[in-house]
Design goal:
Blueprint lengths: L5 E2 L2 E6 L19 E2 L2 E2 H11 L5 E5 L8 H6 L2 E4 L9 H6 L7 E5 L2 E3 L7 E2 L3 E18 L5 E20 L1 H14 L10 H6 L8 E4 L5 E3 L3 H7 L9
Parallel strand pairs: 2-5, 2-7, 5-6, 10-12
Antiparallel strand pairs: 1-9, 3-4, 7-11, 8-13, 10-11
């Protein structure tokens, strides 16, 4: 089936979390505001979005949220406060941005893209993926012949796995928000990432895999991983 291109309306960058595995660095500075190879993580991502033609950008803040205030003037972005970041997982940041979700990039503020992967238009909604040779504890993807994601398992081997930006289209945004509204106040929802909720409703929600070569998308879960990429952080391992 041929898909017609649709214009991407905006981007939402999720930046509300504690990043507890980044202590002591994250005790006073959100991980998104760390400088990596000479450029602040979130500023790099905003720049790449803008260079791709995405001008309407929202940053969802929570932990040390006031430190992001300067981005309004410097980068021309809008800030959305997630008031529930301390008691809920990242689904609450998606919910906080519910009024702007349409054809929308959902981005993690701590991702580092070695090259600009964003575009102003796309043919279908997707989740970015890298390939793991051998075993991995990441969220592994199964797809049908069209590339539609049909199953997600935590952990696997020799598999494509979720990492990086996600593109919601209008249909996905509408359907996902309907599900999230229905499930938001259930006690079991509190600790779930939005991806876990998506995984439970694959029959209702359509995303396709978007494959990238290894190392073009980087995610730093620990200071050790960051130091391996940017040696200026080696001193924090002593």
């Amino acid at each position: 089936m041929e898909h017609k291109k649709f214009k991407i309306d905006n981007a939402v960058i999720l930046a509300a979390g504690f990043s507890s595995r980044f202590a002591p660095l994250s005790l006073h500075t959100p991980k998104a505001l760390l400088k990596v190879k000479g450029e602040i993580l979130i500023e790099r991502q905003i720049r790449q979005l803008q260079e791709a033609g995405i001008r309407d950008i929202y940053v969802v803040t929570g932990y040390l949220g006031q430190q992001f205030d300067y981005l309004r003037e410097r980068a021309g972005v809008s800030l959305i406060e997630n008031k529930e970041y301390q008691v809920r997982n990242n689904h609450s940041s998606v919910w906080a941005a519910r009024d702007v979700l349409a054809n929308t990039y959902i981005c993690s503020s701590d991702n580092y893209f070695t090259e600009n992967l964003f575009t102003a238009a796309a043919k279908r909604p997707y989740y970015s993926a890298l390939y793991a040779d051998g075993p991995t504890e990441e969220y592994c993807l199964t797809t049908d012949s069209s590339g539609r994601i049909t199953d997600v398992t935590i952990g696997g081997s020799d598999s494509w796995y979720m990492l990086g930006h996600v593109l919601f289209d209008q249909r996905f945004s509408s359907s996902f928000l309907h599900i999230l509204e229905r499930e938001y106040n259930r006690p079991e929802t509190l600790n779930r990432m939005w991806e876990n909720i998506y995984m439970e409703h694959l029959d209702e929600l359509t995303l396709y895999i978007k494959k990238y070569r290894n190392n073009v998308i980087r995610e730093f879960d620990t200071v050790k991983e960051l130091a391996a990429f940017d040696p200026s952080y080696l001193s924090y391992l002593i």
